[in-house]
Amino acid sequence: MNRGFNLLELTVVVALLSALLTIARPSFNGFFERIKMKRLASELNGFMAQAKSEAVLRNQRLYAHFSFSANPVSHTDTWHITLTDQIVAGGEPLFFLDGSAFRGLAIRHSYNLGYISFDSTRGRPTSGSIAFFPQQTPSMVLKVVMANPPGRVRLCGLNGTLYGYAACE
């Protein structure tokens, strides 16, 4: 009794698997894109919460400096946000958020001065927002909104409910 595959059967199985993987690939790209978006949203939210807490703990105004300019969208993965104790970039780095893990996502912010300031008594950030989206689907924008005076940081979807976050108001 012969056991196993012969060459013809093996060729058919490989061809079927190749076709199946070719069809499934776009689905996997969308899955990984959603994971990156949710992770960046979580990282930015955590960074802002930690910056607020650190400003209150130190009883000192702190600054989150962007490595990319305000409104032109940064399509590179070399961006970063650094929390320092100085108004100019280059002070003592307290926290660092690196964008290299978020390849394929574009990011922009609305801070014309290039930094977010955190109040020393309540940790309130200056008003503004950080928006990010997958480069392949620029309509799927998530936004981190810092509202002052309440000092609240919230995440929302710019074009309706996205990735489990409510629509921006």
Automatic annotation (TrEMBL):
<keyword id="KW-0488">Methylation</keyword>
<dbReference type="GO" id="GO:0015627">
    <property type="term" value="C:type II protein secretion system complex"/>
</dbReference>
<dbReference type="InterPro" id="IPR045584">
    <property type="entry name" value="Pilin-like"/>
</dbReference>
<dbReference type="GO" id="GO:0005886">
    <property type="term" value="C:plasma membrane"/>
</dbReference>
<keyword id="KW-1003">Cell membrane</keyword>
<dbReference type="GO" id="GO:0015628">
    <property type="term" value="P:protein secretion by the type II secretion system"/>
</dbReference>
<dbReference type="InterPro" id="IPR022346">
    <property type="entry name" value="T2SS_GspH"/>
</dbReference>
<comment type="similarity">
    <text>Belongs to the GSP H family.</text>
</comment>
<dbReference type="InterPro" id="IPR016824">
    <property type="entry name" value="Tfp-pilus_assembly_FimT"/>
</dbReference>
<dbReference type="Pfam" id="PF12019">
    <property type="entry name" value="GspH"/>
</dbReference>
<feature type="domain" description="General secretion pathway GspH">
    <location>
        <begin position="41"/>
        <end position="145"/>
    </location>
</feature>
<keyword id="KW-0997">Cell inner membrane</keyword>
<keyword id="KW-0812">Transmembrane</keyword>
<dbReference type="InterPro" id="IPR012902">
    <property type="entry name" value="N_methyl_site"/>
</dbReference>
<protein>
    <recommendedName>
        <fullName>Type II secretion system protein H</fullName>
    </recommendedName>
</protein>
<keyword id="KW-1133">Transmembrane helix</keyword>
<keyword id="KW-0472">Membrane</keyword>
